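Two proteins follow. First one:
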Amino acid sequence: MDATYEVVVIGGGAAGLSGALTLSRARRRVLVIDSGRPRNAPAQGVHAFLGHEGVPPRELLAAGHEEIVKYGGQIVTGLVTAAERLADGRFLVTLDDGSAVGAARLLVATGLVDELPPVPGLAERWGRDVLHCPYCHGWEVRDQAIGVVGAGPLAAHQALLWRQWSDDVTLFLHTAPEPGEEAREQLAARGVTVIEGELAGAVLEGDRLTGVRLADGREVPRRVLAVGTRMNARLDGLAGLGLETAEQDMNGFVLGTYVPGDPTGKTGVPGVWVAGNATNVMDQVVSAAAAGVRAGAAINADLVIEEALDAVAARRAAGTATEEEFWDDRYRQSERIWSGAPNAVLVREVACLPPGRALELGSGEGGDAIWLAGKGWRVTAADISGIALRRAARQAEEAGVADRIDWQRHDLGESFPEGTYDLVTACYLHSPGDMPREKILRGAAAAVAPGGVLLVAGHAGWPAWHRDDRPDVHFPTPREVFDSLEPAEGEWEVLRCEEFERVQNDPEGKPTTRTDNVLKIRRRL
């Protein structure tokens, strides 16, 4: 590995450079790998990009290079021949000169490949007088004789679109299906001539398109040809990443293929984002640039979270981070950590109890407390994380039960809600830190009113997919939990004390079975 970067951007078009600029300004170590062969290289200018109207594409990209370098980013010219995700979640990217670089995150902005109809002469004139996008080129060829080469069921739509820029438009059906009656009427009404028969080639005079030749020998004068291409995401050298592609269609016709991503460009491969035409074949320069900015900001935010968690882990290892700081950082990772549904064991064990006053310990984002309040309980819900409690309060407002829940922040090893309750629950009160669980559960037992119920649910061991079993960690049995409460003789009636299995999805979303345990006891009157 020749060097390691926080982010490697594969692709030096508008999307890739905009993402790299965003990341460089965020003080990230960024490398752009640019093939030097942009899709729009033959075009005379960039259009519909506010403030850059008519700028030659290579001038725009050169300016982007200067801006990225100004903020410390690096750019190399080359082709990616291989890319893979390593066991530690980082990436190794190999270039055609044999060099290799490492990266914590990847931004794929490789654009797409246009597949033109196999008509002689079209590829040679591509981007000059053989065009694909009226919004990119329509103004420049306005009022000229335009021919639309039909290659699919959208041919009539394309001809009507180009008619906006010229009243001299001819649709060559070529390999397109016969237009329906309604489309025929629209084309006739707009003065678009329709010519049947396949094309044999473009007619050129010197360095100029003058028309087309049909297979039957006829020649039709045209100054410009509009061609609908099949557009496929360019993924040369990236097979090792395992990126999936999908088909992008319009009205049932496949326009091409793209790499799916969320609104920020995050793909299904952890650590890989995508932007520009590689994920949206319809993007123009301005929208591709915007997508690059969004992806760059999302990648930076993802790195910020990872760095914060690493810092917390290091601080905890050094014994300087608090339990509250750990859980606040955990909740900052996502807008929602838990599902929002109540724990199944709570629903099963409490549904038969008459509602009264309940205390929930370790309430998190409020799923259990909100369910209890919805069943008529008046709930005191305690958690160490202020972030979790604020989220839970918002959820309770939306559920219409806010007036039935008192949210309290407690480090239960140091402070405890006051009063006694008809139900006290502690479901999955585990923590990677040194939380005094036995002390907390003794406090929970002390808070149960005569005739009230204590419900404790917990894990019986690590899940099947957990690779670090940490033999130093002990998961108490329900009997051990009961004994740790230091119960007085005859003080409690044991209602349930057992292990049970439940279905839980693993990190890849696949259902698996996990063993948990439950202790349910009632304080005798």
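Second one, unrelated to the first:
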Amino acid sequence: MELTAAHWTYLAGVVVIIGVMIARRNVVVPAVVATFFTAWFYSGSLVKGLAAIFSASLTAAGELFSIFLIIALITALLGAMRALGAERRMVAPFRVLMRNGRMAFLAIAGVTYFISLFFWPTPAVPLIGAILLPAAIRAGLPAVSAAAAIAIAGQGMALSSDYVIQVAPGLSAKAAGVETSAVADRAMVLSVITGVVALTLVYLKGRRSFGTVSEEHRLRWEAEAEALSADGGGVSLGGTEAGRTARTAAASGGSAGAATKLLSPPGGAGPGGSGTDSATDPGAASGPGSGTGPGTDRKPGPGPASGPDSGEIPGEPVRRSRAFALIVPLTFAAIVGYMLLGKFTGAVTEVQGGEAAGLVGGVAMLLLFAAVFCCDGKEGLTTAADHVVDGLVFAFKAMGVVVPIAGFFFLGNVDFITEITGVQDDKPPALLFDLVTAVDQYIPDIGFIVAFAILIIGMITGLEGSGFAGLPLTGSLSGSLGPAADVDPATLAAVGQMGSVWTGGGVLIAWSSLLAVAGVARVPVQDVVRHCFVPVVAGLVTATALATVLF
């Protein structure tokens, strides 16, 4: 097909968007402008070009709303658990495993991964920091190693696969034109490979500094944090006075809410960081364990004494709290087991496509209702709605930036260009695919090289700081390059997802939600980046090389 002005305009838009991402700026404006000019040149109508700005975002929102909804429901459930005090008890038992620095490293990585699979790292980071991190430091684990373990297991392994909630695989799969389950399966394998390699190298790198249980470790950690805070250090990256104040508050051991505020990186929000408090940390202003938030304004009742290591919250319904701390993770673990059973055996029906998100969302809604009624009784009719609204607010703050960006890349897809531009064409162009086809003769038809090219593109898009904004691009390129290189587009989409999320989701760059990890660990964020960089890059290279062999 002959390339037209619309093709060249679309290509210019892609190049500009990548350049803006490298410059660590928000790409919404260039995405919208590129959508306008591309639609205008394709349709030949200024009016249709203007209308396409709205139509592209509307189309993307329609395609992605199921993703927004599942985020909202999971966030609402966590809010209800927090009101019960169940989210703290869910991880408190793991503190007994921390008998020395080595066991603490494995325990904090394992718990972070497990919790982040179901609730995302956004709320998990303050939770882990408040409950497990002081115990891990006391057990002899250096703070920078603890921060690296949390980042790799949460923002890296769990978020890059996103196997339970399936937001990332959904974005990649839609852009690549493949099944979400195919991308999710491959991403799960690749994320584990990357994570195991990275965690192993971080462990070996810091093992000589691992100690044994001593209260002196925690006291020294707190003293160093105070010194960093007094000197204006900590997680500060400069910027405005307000930004420095917020970062200092988190670095000096402020509330879980203060750490959560850091989850919105400069230049845009993402699933690893939204910049919202009410959705993910109701009542956090009183600090971890305060028992405040929706439904907690009741009279104190009998319960264990509270303290920094007790894991108890004054006035909470202890038995109900303990019950939900057990029921919720076991329920989600059962869902994962059911999906795996259906995939690898014929014992149950296989969960396909959007059924996985629907299953998780439906169960989350029922658990939410059960939690609010146990917590608030007849007032649960009101508080349940409040939690859902908070969840929706968080979802749109976390993912809203993706809508106009995805709209631009959907414009390059043959399945959406007619809907977006309103131009009726018997053979509408696939703008991105046509561009790839035009230079096909210059692209090595070697799957190994193409896979690493997609990885690098994914890492470049991740520099924007949100982790998910580049997935429409890597997915689209995977769908275009895969057939020519004789590689399954789902595999390439998973590789691109690894590069984008591991980079921008909060592991390899300091202006991402890694700020929150550094905040709760009370170490300079640059130190965490340096500690993680070589291990994570080694893991990504290993996973990408194996991807072309395994799939």
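SUMMARY FIELD: Confidence is low (pLDDT under 50) at residues 232-314. The CA atoms of residues 390 and 480 lie 38 Å apart.
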